[in-house]
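Memo subject: From amino acid sequence to discrete backbone structure tokens
Keywords: amino acid chain, backbone geometry, structure tokens, three-dimensional fold.
Body of memo: The sequence and its backbone structure tokens, given next.
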Amino acid sequence: QVQLVESGGGLVQAGGSLRLSCAASGIIFSINAMHWYRQAPGKQRELVALIFSDATTYYVDSVKGRFTISRDNAKNTVYLQMNSLKPEDTGVYYCNTQVRGVGYWGQGTQVTVSS
């Protein structure tokens, strides 16, 4: 059974940093692309960053230069280092992966950035 468990969210002032973690189980982690999404209040869930099995990364324009996605295949964990946080980064952050066309989501972790 695929499980994704996020952690690391919290309340931080603008300009601060947080590091999110997502521990995966039930998948061959090293071959899976891993994604971070976020959902702000009243808005649709959006892709923030993704990392492929070869460590190639993608970022949405709004976080380029501030966020870094990385993975540790030995720990089956993907990370999202978030620096220079802004109030508009506030939302619930979700980890996601796909296995044979089926999407799996974690429970989400709340990130709140105060101005």
Remarks:
- The two ends are 40 Å apart (CA to CA).
- Residues 38 and 93 are 4 Å apart (CA to CA).
